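re the bet — no i am not wrong, look at it urself. input seq straight from the record:
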Amino acid sequence: IKRLPPEEEEKINNRRFMIATEILTTERFYVNSLSLVIRLYLEPLKQDANSSKKPMLPPEDVPVIFSGWEIIHRLNTEFLKRLEERMKNWRYNLPLGDLFQALAPTIRLY
């Protein structure tokens, strides 16, 4: 196997780190956004539907509108935790693909 010149290898390694950092940043934003929707909309609507005499939405509509959100939030929170742990111990030869493979069976929820 032919090795790349050190400066070329460094460029590739830096690019891998930048891509991994972007994935981490995006996942944090996504999980935070899911958390906000659940906290600001789903939970209040569920509470209103179950306790109000005149709910904003019929109780049966809330789970339909937010179908899978809480599960997706839980899965992505776990994915984020694993990704953050991987990034804390970053080395250029550390893969990220296994984290995505572990999440892959749940993609149908989306």
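see?? The radius of gyration is 20 Å. told u. also The longest helix spans residues 6-51. so pay up
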